[in-house]
């Protein structure tokens, strides 16, 4: 089956997936896994957590598809579940509390020795992940949806169920923050 | 417009192409005259480009297989459970069965409430390591309830 864009999935196919039709479920997955995994990775900062988030997200989507009311767009609904699952996973991990420390240590070691940093060569992707990890969850969600996913402010507001001006102010503060961090650690 | 307000626009709507023509032109003419704001613009643009150009990592091929397995397992679980079955544990009368089952349910829900702290003071719930609100996440809902604590509900600004 050719991968379709999420907007092109028919209501009929969504209903079939909701009833447990494996082919319909797979078509839904094929249309959505790209952006779900991308957002999961942006929110988590590493592939292992992103995998876990994406997996949990799709289980929730498939199990709750029968409650999808076709009032909002399926894409918005899926984005929302992805972001919420990612936020919950981050909360859980923070309670277990070691990842944050690990990132801080990496940042410290990067700033300590520019020579060694060059040797280990933090790739541009790693740099971005380190930067993102200095943001609070709500700012990070806005940056991921805007800068990685390229969504409009209006769409972000719908996904996060916040006012569009809140999207603006979070983005502004996030970017100020990122610019500061970039300067501080010469990333 | 002052530089401070200008910068707010530059770092958000302007680089994100959310401005209408008139507002965009106003920012552009300010930028051509103000080097401080121009450097803010350059820095923001570089940052945004860096974020945008993050290489896309494809989801590992095993992901769908994992999801499908779990999805099927859960569907099988749901099918094999019937609430009616509960009322035929004993061969006695319906009333006996109903009484036993209902008191079991009552015990279970009391135990549940105890564990999640809803019949205990909040402090003891926290001490016991339970945090009921933090993990509320019911993805099917499209009305305002369970998510609002998580994002955008309150106290975030
Ligand atoms: Zn200026």
Count of domains of chain A: 2
The number of helical segments of chain B is: 6
Q: Structural class, judged by helices and strands of chain B? A: mainly alpha
Return Rg of chain A in Å. 18 Å
Number of strands of chain A: 0
- The dominant shape of chain A is globular
Largest interface: A-B, 68 and 47 residues
N-to-C order of helices and strands of chain A: HHHHHHHHHH
Strand % of chain A is under 5%
* Name of the top-level CATH class of the largest domain in chain A: Mainly Alpha
- How do the SSEs of chain B run, as a string of H and E? HHHHHH
Uncertain stretches of chain B: 124-138, 140-157
CATH second-level architecture of the largest domain in chain A: Orthogonal Bundle
Number of domains of chain B: 3
The helicity of chain B comes to 55-70%
Indicate the CATH topology of the largest domain in chain A.
Rna Polymerase Sigma Factor, Chain: A
The largest β sheet of chain B comes out as: none
| Overall mean confidence score, pLDDT of chain B | 74
Structure description:
The complex is a heterodimer of chains A (187) and B (157). With 187 residues, chain A is an all-alpha fold. Chain A folds into two domains: 1-99, Rna Polymerase Sigma Factor, Chain: A; 103-187, Winged helix-like DNA-binding domain superfamily/Winged helix DNA-binding domain (Arc Repressor Mutant, subunit A, Orthogonal Bundle). Chain A has helices at 11-18, 22-44, 47-64, 74-96, 99-112, 114-120, 124-132, 137-148, 153-160, 164-184. In chain A, helix 1 (11-18) crosses helix 2, helix 2 crosses helix 4 (74-96) and helix 3 crosses helix 4 (74-96). The longest helix of chain A has 23 residues, at 22-44. The radius of gyration of chain A is 18 Å and the shape is globular. Chain B has 157 residues and is mainly alpha-helical. Chain B folds into three domains: 3-52, no CATH class; 62-115, no CATH class; 120-157, no CATH class. Helices cover 58% and strands 0% of the residues of chain B. Chain B contains six helices and no strands. In chain B, helix 2 (21-33) crosses helix 3 (35-52). The two termini of chain B are 25 Å apart. The relative contact order of chain B is 0.04. At the A-B interface, helix 2, helix 3, helix 4, helix 7 and helix 8 of A face helix 1, helix 3 and helix 4 of B. The structure holds zinc ion.
């Amino acid at each position: 089956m050719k991968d379709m864009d999420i907007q092109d999935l028919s209501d009929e196919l969504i209903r079939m997936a909701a009833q447990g039709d494996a082919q319909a479920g797979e078509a839904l997955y094929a249309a959505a896994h790209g952006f779900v995994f991308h957002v999961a990775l942006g929110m988590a900062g590493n592939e292992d957590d992103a995998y876990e988030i994406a997996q949990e997200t799709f289980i929730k989507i498939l199990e709750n598809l029968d409650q999808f009311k076709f009032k909002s767009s399926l894409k918005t609904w899926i984005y929302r579940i992805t972001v919420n699952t990612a936020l919950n996973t981050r909360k859980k991990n923070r309670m277990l509390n070691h990842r944050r420390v690990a990132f801080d240590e990496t940042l410290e070691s990067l700033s300590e020795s520019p020579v060694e940093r060059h040797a280990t060569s933090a790739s541009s992707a790693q740099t971005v992940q380190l930067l993102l990890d200095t943001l609070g969850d709500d700012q990070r969600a806005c940056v991921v949806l805007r800068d990685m996913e390229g969504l409009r402010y209006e769409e972000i507001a719908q996904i996060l169920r916040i006012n569009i001006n809140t999207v603006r102010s979070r983005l502004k503060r996030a970017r100020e923050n990122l610019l500061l961090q970039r300067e501080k650690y010469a990333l | 417009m002052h530089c401070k307000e200008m910068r707010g626009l530059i770092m958000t709507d302007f680089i994100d192409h959310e401005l209408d023509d008139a507002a965009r032109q106003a920012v552009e003419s300010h930028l051509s005259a103000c080097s401080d704001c121009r450097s803010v613009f350059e820095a923001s643009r570089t940052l945004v480009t860096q974020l945008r150009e993050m290489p896309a990592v494809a989801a590992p091929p095993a992901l769908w297989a994992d999801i499908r397995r779990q999805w099927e397992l859960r569907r099988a679980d749901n099918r094999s459970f019937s609430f009616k079955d509960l009322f035929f544990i004993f061969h006695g009368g319906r009333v006996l069965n109903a009484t036993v089952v209902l008191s079991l349910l009552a015990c279970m829900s009391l135990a549940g409430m105890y564990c999640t702290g809803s019949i205990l003071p909040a402090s003891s719930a926290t001490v016991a390591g339970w945090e009921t609100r933090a993990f509320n996440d019911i993805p099917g809902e499209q009305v305002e309830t369970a998510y609002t604590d998580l994002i955008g509900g309150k106290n975030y600004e």
